């Protein structure tokens, strides 16, 4: 039977008959990993058949295949196999490729910002709710301005978190600074929440001499030792097994912390994802896997990515407790990640969270997503399903927010981001020497030779090289 979220923290008890549940790694006699989940009130297959082609969201066709198998077990016959006794059946029955029903999605707020009847969630104080909301707006504003700056040719590359602001901020708010974060690339909100200044975001994007990475990474590859946020690496999914290693070392050191790794739906097609889940389960590593299932891996929709019922079902296959959550609902995401973190640390086990969302923006500034999906669909998720609008309705209804607060916040953030851009743009680039340092304690001869030849080339052909990069 699936496990209840621990009651030790404050939950909102509207009605007591509904429970937040993680799918247990082991199925029960109910056949689908635990019954009694909250019945989802919305669906990610799209509300309007004319606009949405449901197959995009429907990677599996649960409900259309074999019924849950009811085996007749042969009395007094078991296979005494290492790890537990296996019952024997005389019937040749194959287990179905999918469970009877699709895994439901845990949601707290409806589209109007009202808690669903019977929902149980972690309450957030007014102060925390406003901080979460302001951070989501900061992320959105920052994305808009940096995206435009790239379009003006001031930056070489950018990618936004548009539509995924709640996953970024609400999950970050549920973590502790002692936890180690191993991100993909669409999670800049997580590092911002941990205290990375807007100025540093701009420094990284411009690769100037204040950038922690000394200009050696592509834009959007943030990282900070101080904030326990490992630098983004471009090859997809490499961070997932690394997170298991980090978690295992936290376990060995008996730390009150876990590793948290983020990745997209597309990344789950990499072998690294599967190896990581298996290692984590076998090693009982305190790691929280957060999959942002945003429907797309650049132009590849999820129904071309996998045939399983999304990602949460894969957790169970590896023996990992898992949940599917509405990633556009900040309160549901916050509650699920708080519970996941707590279980990962207290019980020393991995947890998988599949956060359902939609990538509202193009994949990056190198993409035009209108070439492969209808504009109406994007617009729908941008407006009707906006995680920011939904959370605003909640805080405004609670009397914590007003239209005046909103316009002041947006004005202030816009000013801060523009100032950060203008300042970072003017800062000189790191010296060319940095290309050769920080890998070896003492630079080997071959690198010394390469450094010399690069610098000679720049001196001989100065017009061929950027004038703002000091030698
Ligand atoms: C190993 C590897 N293969 C391919 C790529 C090119 N690539 C960059 S992002 C991306 C899509 C990833 O999609 P997903 O994991 O769903 O993340 P999202 O962009 O949707 O947030 C691909 C294929 C890469 N960076 N690394
Ligand atoms: Mg994706």
From TrEMBL:
GO process terms (BP): branched-chain amino acid catabolic process
EC number(s) stated in the UniProt entry for this protein: 1.2.4.4
Molecular function in Gene Ontology: branched-chain 2-oxo acid dehydrogenase activity; metal ion binding
UniProt KW keywords: Metal-binding, Mitochondrion, Oxidoreductase, Potassium, Transit peptide
One Gene Ontology cellular component: branched-chain alpha-ketoacid dehydrogenase complex
Enzymatic reactions: N(6)-[(R)-lipoyl]-L-lysyl-[protein] + 3-methyl-2-oxobutanoate + H(+) = N(6)-[(R)-S(8)-2-methylpropanoyldihydrolipoyl]-L-lysyl-[protein] + CO2
EC top class named in words: oxidoreductase
Cofactor(s) essential for the protein: thiamine diphosphate
Gene3D superfamilies: 3.40.50.970
Keyword Transit peptide: yes
Pfam families given in the database record: E1_dh
Compartmental location: Mitochondrion matrix
Domain Dehydrogenase E1 component intervals: 134-430
Family per record: Belongs to the BCKDHA family.
Complexes and interactors: Heterotetramer of alpha and beta chains.
UniProt name for this protein: 3-methyl-2-oxobutanoate dehydrogenase (2-methylpropanoyl-transferring)
Organism: Solanum tuberosum
